[in-house]
Amino acid sequence: MSKDNKTHEKTFDRRSMLKTVGASAAAGLAATGSVSATVPTSEMNHVEAAYSDSVRAQWAVAEHADTVLAELADRGYLDARGADAFDFSAVGTDAKDASVMSLYKDERATAEVKASVETETHEVTVVVHPQLGESYASAKPLADADPITVRDEGGEVTTEACVTESRCTCDPCDLNSCVYQERTCCTNYGDGTDCTAWSDEGCCGACCS
Is pTM beyond 0.90 here? Predict the structure, then answer.
């Protein structure tokens, strides 16, 4: 076989492999039926960039989560009121105290601004989705204490004796994003923590975090 034929054969094999991988990923996404395989990457990059430094991330929490954080402070779960209770200097680093990533949820692109702080009794995490007009703050007990989540969705504030957790998985949504999941965990009066199964809620741009 000539050198040209061998080169052509290698190129063909590589293209065939890539097509097969792409088709398999698309088929897997179609089978789940829970997330969209078409994610507007440029729009997701834009909303993440809008909050990608510590000043803008803190502003987003102050602007969109003031009500839920005030409720936690009034109930004694936070030592300070509002966004000042958190350190946003970790935004843009590998630290977990504060982070910003992009989501595609409810057929809309939004940033997710998240920050956590540990008090004497709880780990408090605030999550803001500015473009969706929603935020929540969860207080997860460090020992024998009660959990609580305060949620603000379009101005309607609710509380529940549970903790909401979220993560960006390693499972692909498309070639540029992964599956975004949430779950709820409640304390069952001495029987430990009972968590619902992780549910697929959309796509995220910070895979495996």
Answer: no
